[in-house]
Design brief:
Immunoglobulin-like, mainly beta, 3 helices, about 425 residues, binds copper (II) ion
Length: about 425
């Protein structure tokens, strides 16, 4: 199992120049303001493959619309958005100075840059790219890990000494292994596949179970620190068994078709609509989350859903395969069928380690984030890696494209047709 925690974006700043309104960073597209004036900025992620982190250092943004529909104003300092998402922000630059508009790609390999200024020719400091984020436990679908009970029983460290070192860059600080005592005292390793984590000595060399308390791992004494610095050699002969397939355990996803197109199944995916987005967990200022959004107007349809459709976002990052439920469109051209006017809950489960902006044509859906009749309505939602998102939607007659808005993911097959018909009318 190769899970590269640095594989945050498919196409990076090494090949892309990120643009604002068609202009590169050095062109410095500039919009003018009068100090004290309220300015509405509409941010449209019109890229084919890039999730951006957007901020204007020194200038708070008040988000007033999402995907073109009004939301209750919420003031933030940064937001992350995927291809096809839009946010409208009100800013009120107070003084005669310039501000840099920063659109940093999610992997921090490059930046779109523009300027807000009182006069042409002014420019503000352009902040350096921040440190590249690495995938966390949550990004690997282990966000729902039960911290209450320690169960290393099924853990297979047997294959852990090995070669690829594909987890060598893994952020153990975020995993809480480093802290040992507090962060993950009850971590259930039974769901965790370290099996193919990387055979290289040092593949997980930084992993420190030494301080972990109360482990039930037979024959392994965490308490006394017999393994203060776990590494490939030390783990080489250990086989706790039962873990070899747990990052690809289809019993967690009975809807998913087994095959090479499914590299991982999130063992414990969680609702991540309250998270700020990959890499923005600790940036030290306010970052928008989907849970901050609330529709300004009452939702047009507030009925409870009559049924639920679960769809897994699946992929193989090594082979560049993407699909829904383990199949690309060409393998499963059958439409997802709804009745006109039918109220359906769609739950998306991201079994990959990459965020996917999932988009449906012809509809706005109501994100299920506890906002009742004022659910934020969108046409695209970025499903965080290892995360889930639910939305309720009312069928509108027609044949509608439903797909990941990462262009290459869509082309690879992460796409279906949603076919909506009036009751009693045959499908075409
Ligand atoms: Cu995608």
């Amino acid at each position: 199992m190769r899970m590269d925690p640095a594989d945050v974006a498919d196409v990076t700043g090494s090949v892309y120049t990120y643009l604002v309104n068609g202009y590169g960073p050095k062109d410095n597209w500039t919009a003018l303001f009068r100090p004290g004036e309220r300015v509405r900025l509409r941010f449209i992620n019109a890229s084919s493959m890039t999730t951006f982190n957007v901020r204007i250092p020194g200038l708070p943004m008040t988000i007033v619309a999402a995907d073109g529909l009004n939301v209750r104003p919420v003031e933030i300092d940064e937001f992350q958005f995927g291809p096809a998402e839009t946010y409208d922000a009100i800013v009120t630059p107070p003084d005669l100075r310039a501000y840099t508009l920063v659109g940093e790609s999610i992997d921090r390999s490059g930046m779109a840059r523009a300027t807000l200024a009182p006069r042409e020719g002014m420019a503000a400091e352009v902040p350096p790219l921040r440190k590249r984020p690495l995938a966390t436990m949550k990004d690997m679908g282990m966000g729902g890990m039960d911290h209450g009970t320690m169960d290393h029983g099924g853990m297979n460290h047997g294959a852990m000494g090995g070669a690829a070192g594909s987890m060598s860059g893994m952020d153990h600080a975020a995993m809480g292994h480093g802290a040992g005592t507090g962060a993950m005292p009850g971590m259930d390793h039974s769901q965790m596949n370290h099996g193919a984590a990387g055979t290289a000595a040092g593949g997980m060399a930084g992993m420190d179970h030494g301080q972990a308390q109360g482990g039930a791992m037979a024959g392994m004494d965490h308490g006394s620190g017999t393994m203060p610095a776990m590494n490939g050699d030390q783990m080489g002969g250990m086989d706790m068994g039962g873990m070899s397939h747990s990052m690809r355990d289809f019993s967690n996803a009975p809807e998913v078709k087994k095959g090479p197109g499914v590299q991982t199944i999130s063992p414990m995916p969680v609702d991540r609509t309250g998270d700020p987005g990959q890499g923005l967990e600790n940036v030290g200022h306010r970052v928008l989350t989907y849970r901050d959004l609330m529709a300004l107007d009452r939702n047009p349809d507030t009925r409870a859903p009559e049924r639920e459709i679960k769809l897994h976002l699946t992929g193989n990052m090594e082979r560049y395969m993407w699909g829904f439920d383990g199949e690309k469109l060409s393998e499963n051209p059958d439409p997802i069928t709804l009745l006109h006017g039918e109220r359906v809950r769609v739950t998306l489960i991201n079994d990959t380690m990459m965020g996917h902006p999932i988009h449906i044509h012809g509809h706005f859906f109501d994100l299920v984030t506890g906002k009742g009749a004022y659910a934020p309505r969108k046409h695209t939602v970025l499903v965080q890696p290892g995360g889930t998102v639910s939305w309720d939607v009312t069928g509108e007659e027609g044949d509608w494209a439903f797909h990941c808005h990462m262009l290459y993911h869509m082309h690879a097959g992460m796409m279906r047709v949603v076919q909506v018909r009036k009751a009693g009318e045959a499908a075409a």
